[in-house]
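Exercise 7. Given the encoded structure of a 285-residue chain, write a plausible sequence.
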């Protein structure tokens, strides 16, 4: 084996070159790590098809109404952990859709369901829990007025659960038919950093006709996660126009998960998921 002489720099040369390098770094633009980063998940397919479609993560349901939620079953969580390891796809959030039929405001099991979901989210590495308020759980009455008594009960239950969520590193994110001001009022009353907003661009802009860009600006500091959907249509061909929404998402510097809750017009979930995902990524590139 041939040996070659080493030529190490002197201490003075080393310090000089290091100082020059640091000076050069100071002139570079800010690192991209400081820029907002958006990741895309899906809540309409499992981990394996989500990987095929190119998604970054998956939102999963906590299960149907029961004293112990399905997501509380250690065997269920173990299967999810195995799927995450196999696919490399994380669970970004949990969805408490059962609250639409068993309202958080009135069902006596609600507080226990929040506790079970928080425990499961922590165990699975999910950072957000969607706390839903639709159908029977809607916080608006048939006349479009706020159900003040229900809101009072919801605020109290969220306040009670918030410290547990904080300690678990989890955010409880409310998704409602209320407008931005009404949602902000609830969040201000709860007054806890572990309770934020899950903003659904179709439920607000398509179903209720709210000004989505204006609402996103209003709620910007309270946004935990965002849903993209356009009813049964593709995201680029439906009632809600996503170009101005994407512009505001960039403007406010949202950094987190956007979850696609999309249909599959072609009856091929992976193909349709891929199309909607590519469109979304292009919007926020």
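Solution.
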């Amino acid at each position: 084996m041939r040996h070659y002489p080493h030529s190490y720099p002197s201490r003075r040369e080393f310090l000089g070159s290091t100082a020059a390098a640091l000076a050069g770094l100071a002139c570079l633009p800010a690192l991209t790590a400081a820029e907002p980063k958006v990741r895309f998940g899906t809540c309409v397919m499992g981990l394996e098809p989500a990987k095929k479609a190119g998604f970054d993560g998956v939102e999963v349901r906590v299960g149907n109404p029961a004293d112990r939620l399905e997501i509380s079953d250690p065997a269920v969580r173990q299967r999810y952990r195995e799927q995450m390891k196999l696919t490399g796809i994380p669970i970004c959030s949990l969805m408490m859709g059962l609250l639409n039929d068993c309202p958080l405001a009135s069902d006596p099991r609600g507080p226990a369901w929040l506790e079970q979901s928080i425990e499961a989210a922590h165990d699975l590495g999910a950072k957000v829990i969607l706390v839903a308020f639709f159908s029977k759980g809607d916080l608006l009455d048939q006349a479009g007025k706020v159900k003040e008594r229900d809101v009072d009960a919801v605020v109290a239950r969220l306040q009670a659960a918030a410290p547990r969520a904080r300690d678990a590193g989890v955010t409880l994110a409310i998704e409602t038919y209320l407008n931005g001001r009404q949602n902000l009022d609830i969040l201000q009353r709860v007054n806890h950093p572990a309770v934020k907003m899950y903003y659904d661009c179709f439920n607000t802009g398509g179903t209720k006709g709210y000004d989505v860009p204006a609402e996103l600006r209003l709620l910007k500091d309270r946004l935990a996660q965002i849903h993209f959907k356009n009813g049964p249509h593709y995201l680029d061909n439906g009632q809600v126009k996503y170009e101005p929404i994407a512009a505001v998402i960039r403007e406010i510097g949202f950094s987190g998960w956007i979850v696609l809750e999309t249909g599959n017009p072609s009856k091929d979930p992976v193909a349709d998921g891929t199309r909607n995902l590519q469109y979304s990524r292009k919007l926020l590139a």
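Remark. The CA atoms of residues 73 and 262 lie 28 Å apart. Students should compare their own answers with the one above.
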